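Review form for a predicted model. The reviewer records the input and the model, then writes brief findings.
Reviewer: anonymous (R2)
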Amino acid sequence: MKRFDELRDLVMSLEGDFQKFYDKSNQAAGTRVRKGMQDLKNLAQDIRVEVQNMKNNA
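Model under review:
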């Protein structure tokens, strides 16, 4: 569950930047959104690998 908490915290931390980018057209917020989404992608991949390893070792 720790990994899920990390995932949720990352998504929630991006909320303000999403609002700034989409509602106020803040370009710097768009850069932060892109970086955050890349971090999200990497975290999701790490979780996928971890789950697969746990499944295979069970």
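Findings: The longest helix spans residues 27-57.
Further findings: The chain is about 90% helix and 0% strand.
Recommendation: see findings above.
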